[in-house]
Amino acid sequence: MWAGAAVAATDLTLKTALLSAALALPGLGMVASMAHAETAPERGYVTFKMLDYLDSQPGADRIRVRAPALSALVPLGDKWSLSGTLIADSISGASPAYYDSAITPMRDFRRAVDTSVTRYLPQGTWSLGASYSKEADYLSRSVYGSATRSNDSKNTIWNWGLALAKDQISPVKPLTPFPKLATGPQAKRTVDLIAGVTQVLSPTDLVQINLGWSQNQGYLSDPYKRLDQRPDSRTRQTLQVRWNHHLEGSGATVRSSYRYFKDSWQIRAHTLDLEHVQPLAENWKASAGLRYHSQSAARFYVESDGKISPFGPRITPGLNQQSLDTRLSAFGAVTLGVKLTHQLGRDTSIDLKLEHYEQRGSWAMGTGSVNLLPFRARSISWGLTHWF
């Protein structure tokens, strides 16, 4: 099932696409934005988003997701606002059990809700929120909080955030027996911390630096992959630098970012993002983006020898830590995306976004994993926003 397959993924393309299309479900995405307003918004809005996602390997489409999402923000006087998101996504298709083959059918349905309240102060904000997500084999509950503080000139903004999550994993049909599953549902707990600063360098330049720390404790293996035995803890650190530059002549904005990731599983990852946002004719705006991601393999990832078998010649039943999950392999990935937005009068806008993702072992910055089948994904999303 979807959540079971996502228990400990490293660079979850599908999950990232879902959360982005759903306007950022739980956690700290809010505090990672380039800047916070320090006055309550004068108008509220309602947004409807629809995502259609499909990934594939040579000769087979794998997973398809259709995810409608409804999001809203309501001002409460001049010092408060309330926001929330509802998602109901359906997942169907097939998921590889090992070595990117042995395709097995899967189907799932997820409902999720996220809500938060924000207080606006003369020189900052604070927010509190909670989220809930439920599907056949995965239950997730979390609470989070964030705060911002600016200096007197309002050109420097500090931000902090904390999120706590408690998940329950209840595999429907594990591929192989796991001792940890013998007593029933398994638990996973997550702590996320983020701190950063946003600095206005000039009327056309904005820079942000964020530091993140996260720790998972509990059941982190994937019950739907054969002989998948992972550590019961994982600590992650991230460093992200963003730079937005406005081109006064054309009215365009160039957004760039770099993200460094490391964890206790010995995965190291680099992600580069570049996006160009260009106003077109009246009430039209277009953007084009390019992302490159490269990561090393987890220390317990077992490299494929190119042969397809339930266990593989280098897998030893009973070994404490091992995984054939190619999301933990060493690979490089490229994402290309375009988005078109049209403003329908003062109160309504529509948008359409297309993205193509592809990853290969040979595209890694260092030595990539061998015998990986190319993996591709495409996503189409459209949205309608109305202000009131």
Would you give an account of this structure?
With 388 residues, the protein is mainly beta. It has a single domain (2-387), classed as Porin. Helices cover 3% and strands 60% of the residues. The protein is built from 2 helices and 16 strands. It has helices spanning 2-5, 13-21, and strands at 45-57, 60-76, 80-98, 101-121, 124-135, 138-150, 156-169, 186-202, 205-218, 233-247, 252-263, 268-279, 284-295, 331-344, 348-360, 375-387. It has a 16-stranded antiparallel barrel. The longest helix has 9 residues, at 13-21. The chain is globular, with a radius of gyration of 22 Å. The two termini are 39 Å apart. 34% of the residues are buried. The model is unreliable at 1-36 (pLDDT under 50).
CATH architecture: Beta Barrel
Determine the strand fraction and express it as a percent band. Answer: over 45%
Distance between the termini: 39 Å
CATH topology: Porin
Give helix % range.
under 10%
Write down the Rg: 22 Å
Shape: globular
Major β-sheet strand ordering? 1-2-3-4-5-6-7-8-9-10-11-12-13-14-15-16
Number of helices: 2
